[in-house]
Design a protein that fits this description.
The structure is a homodimer of 345-residue chains. With 345 residues, chain A is of the alpha/beta class. Chain A has 13 helices and 12 strands. In chain A, the strands form 3 sheets. A 6-stranded parallel β-sheet of chain A has the order 2-1-3-4-5-11, sandwiched between helices. Chain A has a 4-stranded parallel β-sheet with strand order 7-6-8-9, with helices on both faces. The radius of gyration of chain A is 27 Å and the shape is elongated. The interface between A and B is large, with 68 and 69 residues. Chain A binds a DNA duplex (16 and 16 nucleotides) through helix 2 and helix 4.
DNA sequence: GTGAAAGCGCTAACAC
DNA sequence: GTGTTAGCGCTTTCAC
């Protein structure tokens, strides 16, 4: 119960009646230690629950393995894990390990991880930043001060930093243009969660596409239904229950693929056929979009490339002995036409 | 080009003509430093690309944030990320952060991460072990010697350790029994990748179910098609092309849900209807199984609970001042009946 | 405002 | 085989 004094190698040595060097030898499996001394020490280590501190062990060599980290916003969404895989590929090729952390869209959590990474000598970080209303970026400035290398996966106002991202506005515009070209006139956008920067950018892209066409935009075309599966599912049902069949849109541009899948599931359950009654377009092109039994038309982000590029820039920064100029890479997206959309007659 | 001598606070201090203490003060944003000294130091830090070592900074306080790690076998499979989410939930409740690493089914990679974790004072690890032919468990013994706490997500012969797992044999048995009860007589198992311990256990469960029924097992019922989507897809097509329609099985028990989804996609493409022509059962119950347009009957593993429990045992071990007895938790699975299976007439 | 010195927990020479 | 000693790169206290 009482807060036991933190065990150290010295404490073990004292109790074993030997010197620290001997305990150290046991810890490092040197074969020079007398078996009986060895056993005694090993036993002491167990019973006193002594755990050598890693940082102290590696102080001499100065290093404990090259590794970089990535902070994603959500762990269980393939979009992010695929980016991480890309980062991992590049990192491996340069002898770095990759560790992953998730902020779960929580700004404090993101900050905690940036602290953790720099404290543990993770050499640099790729960060998918949580952008809140008044985006707190203190923690990024702190990294700056420590000269800690990082790459962002979205542009943040107020800080000049390396960024690797996609052109969200253009992505959604492409989707809308495709629909218009295929004679759709009643198009809506199911928007994402407010705490994601992508949400706003995608709404903007949707609006832009209208202003460049003969159609007129009105804000009822933006229906915020979130991206959580259950929530989007329920909101979709609610949306269609509240409308007459003749007022249904002919096409929906979804915030992302996870949402799109939930929407399609909801449509199935209220007996609306995709793409016969309504066309659906997703965003991201996660793996499951393709194998869904109505394969989803979607806008592909080059997830793997994003991860690779981010890792490349990061490791460049880590290894360069001199200052490296800031990079801002914007990847373009690609409209992948599958079975969830059709041309209107 | 020439390997620059590793920068230290002392080096910066020397070049700035001040003492280490002053540089330290700048680094830690103390307000006691003369602005001009401060600027000079900051500038030097940038141009010399000096990065203070985290381990040295935290040596005094002894700690750099409580955190545990999990090593999964694959990052992009929801089964693992959901376990990680469970672990994260529990960890958070105890004030620990969670970091994730993926071994990608590679034993060396797993070993590298266990080293990394202990070197960086990640307080403990949850490990989904890669079990190869002659399972190398040296690295686990090394952790033992350092008294490093860990929990395994599968039992490994040759080492007594904390384990949280599911009863794979029983899981598959349930599936087969359910099919038999529903009049299926031609049942096969699409097996997983050889490097996964689950593969063998699930085959065993499949065989067991037969031996307890009136049906006879023969080894042609086991078709190894892997769990990678593309590979499983192609193997499925190949399998059915090589058979006459009358020799088709009436039901397939799949290795896991990802494979099952690939199999269903392949069946769609060769125009075999699920469940009319063939019933499909998956394994794991990942999120996408439910929203697939033919919702997948599957065997649910309590992924979140597995993660939570593993984290609980781990943190118990970390925090206990005394030796904690080893735990071995085996979770049961649940057959979730959806639309991909049917009773035979 | 700034510097000198002690010390964090461990490893690695080298002496005994 | 085992102990002594000198660091590793930083922070911190306390003088100045």
């Amino acid at each position: 119960m009482s807060k036991t004094k933190e065990m150290t190698i010295g404490e073990i040595a004292k109790r074993a009646g030997v010197s620290k060097a001997t305990v150290s030898a046991v810890l490092n499996e040197k074969r020079t230690v007398n078996p009986s001394t060895r056993e005694k020490i090993l036993h002491l280590i167990k019973t006193l629950n002594y755990r050598p501190k890693g940082f102290a062990r590696n102080m001499k060599t100065g290093d404990a393995g090259k590794c970089i980290g990535i902070i994603v916003k959500e762990l269980n969404y393939p979009f992010f894990t695929t980016i991480a895989e890309g980062a991992k590929e590049y990192a491996s090729s340069k002898g770095y390990s990759l560790i992953i952390a998730s902020s779960d869209y929580n700004h404090l959590s993101e900050e905690k991880f940036t602290n953790l990474f720099s404290a543990k000598d993770v050499r640099g970080a790729i960060i998918a930043p949580v952008v809140e209303g008044n985006s707190e970026i203190e923690h990024l400035f702190k990294l700056r001060k420590l000269n800690y290398p990082f790459v962002l996966l979205a542009d943040i106002k107020g800080i000049a930093a390396n960024v690797v991202e996609i052109d969200n506005k253009r992505a959604v515009k492409k989707a809308v243009e495709y629909l218009i070209k295929n004679e759709h006139r009643k198009i809506v956008h199911f928007a994402g969660p407010p705490e994601s920067a992508h949400t706003k950018e995608r709404i903007d892209g949707f609006r832009d596409a209208f202003s460049e066409s003969t159609l007129v935009f009105n804000k009822e075309m933006i229906i915020p239904i979130g991206s959580n599966t259950r929530v989007s599912y329920e909101n979709t049902i609610k949306y269609f229950k509240s409308k007459n069949r003749k007022d249904y849109p002919t096409a929906i541009v979804c915030f992302n693929d996870l949402q799109a899948l939930a929407v399609m599931t909801a449509l199935r359950d209220v007996n609306i056929k995709v793409p016969k009654d309504i066309s659906i377009i997703g965003n991201d092109d996660i793996h499951y979009a393709e194998i869904y039994s109505v394969p989803l038309t979607t806008i592909r982000s080059p997830q793997r490339e994003i991860g690779q590029k981010a890792a490349e820039i990061l490791i460049n920064n880590i290894e360069s002995p001199t200052l490296v100029p800031i990079e801002h890479i914007v990847y373009d997206t690609e409209l992948i036409i599958r079975k969830s959309t059709r041309r209107l007659d």
